[in-house]
Structure formats: structure tokens, C-alpha cells
Amino acid sequence: MSIQVGLRGKAWFEALTGKNSPMAGDPDSVLTADVKIGEDTARFLCVVPNPQARFPCARRGEVGLEEAYTLAARVNEVIEQNTSGDKQPISARPIIAIVDVKSQAYGRREETAAIFLACATAAEAYASARMKGHPVITLVVGQAISGGFLTHGYQANRILAFDDSDVVIHAMHKEAAARITLRTVAELDRLGHEIAPLSYDVRDYAKLGLLHKLLHVEDPDKPAQATVTQVQKELIDAIADARAGSTDLGNRLTSKAARETRKASVAARAHIEEQWMKA
Amino acid sequence: MSYATVIPEFVLRQSFIELDARSRAQTLMDPGSWRELVGPFDRIESPWLPEQGIAPQFDDGCVVLKGAIAGKATVVIALEGGFQAGSMGEVSGAKMAAALDLATRDSQNGKKTVAVLLLETGGVRLQEANLGLNAIAEVMASILALRQHAPVITVIAGTVGCFGGMALAAGLSSYIVMTPEARLGLNGPEVIEQESGIEEFDSSDRALIWAINGGEQRVAMGVADELVLDDAQKIAAIVRSHVEAGLPAVHRSQQVDLYRERIRALDTSRQIDPLTLRETWGGKTTVSKTRKGVTR
User: Is domain B13-295 classified as CATH 3.40.50.150?
Assistant: First the structure.
């Protein structure tokens, strides 16, 4: 694992928002900014490494207790702004999760203080925003792994990812997955080439039908102005697409790639529905 | 009390933990009310396991029963801890999400339908990796959609417990029922030891594991609702009472400000004594309308 996890996320947060600091009262590991994109003022959120974090197991870009509750609070704030007050109802604001998280925090303090609940609150905030009509867009610029991704990003209507060898979307990082499944890393790599859901390559991930789009960008470590403009345009398109679509995760089953790779999901769901109607 | 009056209840009780997923689900439902959907005879199994030389199972370790509890329309979805440690694969996840979505649709159409989840799971099935992780994200989305209409009740009996991404699914539930044998946590002890070292977590220390993840602790610190002994009839009675109670006024996973403050107040310079959380957190977050504590 590279020590650089989270730094690319930070670079892209800065490039897209022009800001690089947390909101008042938040830990240094969660960056939040409200920035104009197209006709909207979107809320951008990103988890970044904080070497001084209070929790020792959450200093390298992991999603820990403070990160999860901060994300939950900052996302809920957008929903509340939209539903409170007597102002004219405004179009539900987009929420954009910039994702570069190596994992959830693996610590005893975290387990003792029920990190499962913390992560649930953030996932709930993102999902609630989506269900209430906020376009929730995830931009995977680096790693999106395991509970870190479930907490921050996986409840989005639309997921975009850079087509880049340093982008990894997975259930568990390679070394740990190899140990737990009693395989070598080489075996895991070989299996990944044959079996799409096991692969650590984002192009194989794209075959699962869960991504809205794979973005081809120049030098994602150093966002140049032209690249930033390109990504902004993609975000604007994804926002429009989310607004035009449903507020559930149905597009992950109906996309062209999903109809091919997720045949078993489609079949299982169809059988359940058919028998449900008769039961 | 004589042996004759003390021992019989203990001896005669039907253990819930010793039942497989199908029997557990059947035990909870009104007799004669249920039908299993997409059972083993339908042979909807994992397409990914055989490619890796692993025997699949005809129900993919997920049992769906549609019927009634306390006369109310209910779907019980049970994960089989004996198959791949109850791990979430593409098919088991799709079955669970589909059943939750249909309960939501029925609820929207006026037939309120409760869901009961029996979670014995280590989380993502790593042999299906990314489709397992996404399946959990979809299950979470489906729980949240149903929760707008009817309660989602999670039962964690043991002995696998509920870990990984499925612990987030449990965290989104309206109510969590646990036995003292059950455990609930995001990262299992072995994973923490592997990632952060044995000084952080000694996964051979069973007392430590249960002090942190065990049902008694989770209920006492207020992040689960009911502690119940391993007795099928008692667990069924507790589930029934929550089906009848309906939705809580506010879900625990919506209490962000409360928990954020609690995390702020923790002394993180050393490990946190689980017992102190029983005092500082316990009893204040309870959202259930039913009585707290062990049901004997």
C-alpha cells in the first residue's frame, strides 16, 4: 500500500473547489466546501490523511469515527437546508463525494466505540439525500476500499472513476484478501484477470456495470486546468443524468454491462419477485 | 429451589443458535403463514464459486420466507452462517435486496410489510469481492427505503456474529436483538490484529472480544436494543413485540449529533474501557418502546 493514499483526493478537492480546509469544528481529515458547478452550488466532500488525528488508527486516510460522523453531519446539513425555512423551494443541491480512502479504520478504540454505527450514519446521510432527490455523485480518484467506500461514496446515484492504474475499487486490499482466502497475491492477480469481480483493475470493475462512466484523464496526480475543466463537465453531466433518473440504485442493474455481468443478480431478483406475487 | 424446578426450563428450551438459518426463520413466523421464496429447489446459486473450485449452495446461504408475525405481513431473511461464514455474495445479496424492495413496494401500496433480518455473517464474500461489496451497498439502500414505512428488525444470535459491511446494515436497522453469544462489529478481531498488530488487538483473547463486541456490551452501551438468552421461544417473543411496536420515533443511525459529541468526549490517549461506555452512553439512546434488559 502506498503512503500516498488520500493525497490525490486532496489534490482533486483543491482543484475542483479552490479550497483546502475543513469547515469550522470539523477534524482536519474531512474537507467540505460549497462551490458553484454549472448552475448549481454543490457540496463537495473528501476524506484526507490527518497525521495528527486523535485516533491513532485513522491517521493515514482511513475512514474512522470522526470522519464518518463528520460526513454524516455535513451531508445531513445539505438535506436540512433544502427542507427547512420558508424560502422558495430550491432544486435539491448536488452532493459530490471525492473518494480516495484506503479503508475503514482498523483499531480497537474504533470497535469499542461502535464504528459500525458511525459508518452507518454517513451511508444513511448519503442515501437519504439521494432518496430526497439530491444528485449524489461519487468521483473515485484513487482508492475506494471496503468499509471506507461503503461509508463514503457507495450510496451515490452515479459513480465516476478515473481510468488509471492507481485507481482501486475493492472489497479488501490485496495482501489481506490473499491471506483470508488462503491464496498468494500472484494467484489473486491471475484470478482477477479471469473473474471480473475479483480484479483490482478499474477497467475490470467497469465491466460489472456499477460505474456510470470511466474518465480518461491526463496525469491525475497533478490536475492541470484543462483536466479540471474536463472533470467539471463530466460532473455536470452526471448531475443532469442523476436528476433525470430514479432516486434508487436501479441503474446498477440495468446498465449494459450489468445486464451481462450481473445476470445472476437479475435472475435472482426476477425469481424472488415472481414467487413473491404468488405467495 | 429444587433441581426439578430450575433445570427443566434450561434443559427443555429450544436453542436458537443450534438451528440452521431456515429453521431459525421458520421458528419466528406465525405457524402455517409462510412460504419460502427461491429456495434450494430453484437452484439459484453463485456463478462465481465453481470457477474457483468452491462448491456453491442451492440457496446461496440466504433463506427468504414471506408470511406473517403477530398477524402482520412480514418477510424474514436469514443468512446461513454455516455456508461460507454467511458471507454476502452476488446472489445472496440480490435475494435480500429484492425481498426488502418488494416489502417496500407492498408497504407503499398499503400493505405494510415488516422485515426481520437474521444476520450471521462475516461481511463480503471475498470470492465475489466487488459484487459482494456492492450487494451490501444495495442491501443498505433497500433497508433505508423500507424503513420509511415499516420497521427492519435485525437479530444476531451467534455464533458467527455480524461483521464487515453487514454490520453497517445492522446499524441501519430499526431494532437490534442480540444474545450474549452474539457479536457485532465492523472489523473482526483477526482483521484488526492483522492490520494494526497484536498490541492493538489480541484476537486470541476471547474475553476482550466479548467485552467489546458481545451482545451484553452492545445492548448495555445502547447501540443494540435487546439482550435475550439463547431460547427460540423467547427470541420469537421479542421479535413479535418489535413487529407490534412498529417504527421507533427516531432511528439510532439518525442521531448523528448525539454520537458525534460522544466521540468528541472520548479520551483517545489510551484504549477505551468498554465498561465506561455502559455508564456514559448506556440507556440514553434507547429509541425502542419496549423494555430494556435481558428477557428471561
Answer: no
